[in-house]
Amino acid sequence: MQQVHINRLGVNSLEFETDTVELPLSPGEERSFEIVLINYGAPTHVNLSVSDSIRENITVLEDNPYVKHEEYIPLIARIPYDGRLYSKGQIYITVGYGSKRQGFNLNLGHQSPNDKSFSVDVDESLYKPAPSKPVRSSKPSSSSMYEGEHWSAQLPSISFEMIRSALGLAAPHSLNIFKAVMILLLVSVLAAIVLSIDFGQFFGFYQSILYSILLTYFMAYLLLRLPKSKR
């Protein structure tokens, strides 16, 4: 029950016995309660309305009563089976043909722990900032780079750098190196063929010395011409 005093402090004044009314309903439950309108002045029409948040939960059986001295206005509150477990809203009282409007809070259902406001005592020591620690550089020093896991982590990169450097140095002379290798392979094949054939019956001792000198001169000539061909 909620009591509303009208015209007690002055014309069209409104006073509520309590600011908040709690109705602990369960889903599917329905309950009626009354608003007692007590008029201390001239008879007047009073209008009752409900806020949008609980409009589907409240039914006002007489929303525009004519109050001479004291009137009991019944209201029906309900929570559907599939409705919200806890709802908050307002019941508004309007007097003076709309010139004065005021309301009180109406809470329906059972409040869950998440909806309740609570405070936690915090130790004052938690307000003090923690002592600052020296910031360590994430970059390993040169002395520790080759110790433990830092050395094993750097090994692949060191190997790749060495191979890359070697290839970079050999790149300008790659053509000359290729030619020299091919010539050496050709000479080796020719020498193997020559050594496998018995030319003793065709050539004498002096002829063999001559051929050897000519072959040596030819190889020296090719080696001397390789650097000039690049120019």
From TrEMBL:
It comes from the Archaea. The keyword Transmembrane helix applies. Pfam families: DUF7524. The chain crosses the membrane at residues 177-197, 203-224. Keywords: Membrane, Transmembrane, Transmembrane helix. This is Uncharacterized protein. It comes from Methanolobus mangrovi.
